Amino acid sequence: MPVVRVRQHVNPFSQKYQQPPEPPDWSMIYQQPNQALHLDIGCARGQFLLTMAEQQPDWNFLGLEIREPLVVQANQDRDRLALTNLHYIFCNVNNFLRPLLQSLPAGTLQRVSIQFPDPWFKKRHQKRRVVQPGVVEVLAEFLPPKGLVFLQSDVEAVAIEMCDRFQQHPQFQRQSPTWLVTNPMPVSTERERSTLVKGEPVYRAVFFKSSV
């Protein structure tokens, strides 16, 4: 498999990323468009979803990524394996998430993961982080009661900020007040594996949409 080289950091406020794409016709994307859907925000090379889609054919999987070459490669990997329950979209989540979720078959979104997002360490750049209040609000609107959000990062400050944003929304409840020791997903990302091999911590949390 060829290695796709892309910029590590992409400014979501750049003009290039302000025009959201048209949501696809889901009946042309998934063989079973009404299956439960797992959304991975910031899917990078898409290998996490690729393995998930192979292991869970009764789910559909959708990855969103702002670096277009990674999306092109990820969809080529999907096609190579002839997976009909997996798709990747090049987009800026902060201006595309609502129209995307509005376009999905009603009630299909069940699970969301946001894993190792770009930390944007400089204070003046932190507004570029993907988990902003608007993203949380949209997920609260479209996830059903008991819908799951899985967050993880190898940067504690970023993990805390993500958790704070979800905890500040009245419709999300954290599963545990402490960091999860193990990953509740059956598949690990490449970043998670490399972090653990180095003996460094991973900060994980799960939130559920309340039924109230």
Spans of 5+ residues with little confidence (pLDDT < 50)? Answer: 1-7
Compute the separation of the termini in Å: 47 Å
Beta content: 15-25%
Q: Strand count, sense and closure of the main sheet?
A: 7 strands, mixed
Descriptive overview:
There is one protein chain. With 212 residues, the protein is α/β, with parallel strands linked by helices. It has a single domain, classed as Vaccinia Virus protein VP39 (Rossmann fold, 3-Layer(aba) Sandwich), CATH 3.40.50. 32% of the residues lie in helices and 19% in strands. The chain has seven helices and seven strands; from the N terminus they run αβαβαβαβαβαβαβ. The chain has helices spanning 26-29, 47-55, 68-81, 93-103, 133-142, 156-167, 190-197, and strands spanning 36-41, 59-65, 86-90, 109-115, 148-153, 172-174, 203-209. Strands 3-2-1-4-5-7-6 form a seven-stranded mixed β-sheet, with helices on both faces. Helix 3 (68-81) links the parallel strand 2 and strand 3 (86-90). Helix 4 runs parallel beside helix 5. It is globular and about 40 Å long. The termini are far apart.
Short description:
The protein is 32% helix and 19% strand.
For the structure shown, list the relevant keywords.
alpha/beta, seven-stranded mixed beta sheet, disordered N terminus, Rossmann fold, 212 residues, 7 helices, 7 strands
Please write out the topology.
Layout: H1 26-29, E1 36-41, H2 47-55, E2 59-65, H3 68-81, E3 86-90, H4 93-103, E4 109-115, H5 133-142, E5 148-153, H6 156-167, E6 172-174, H7 190-197, E7 203-209
Parallel strand pairs: 1-2, 1-4, 2-3, 4-5
Antiparallel strand pairs: 5-7, 6-7
Helix pairs in contact: 4-5
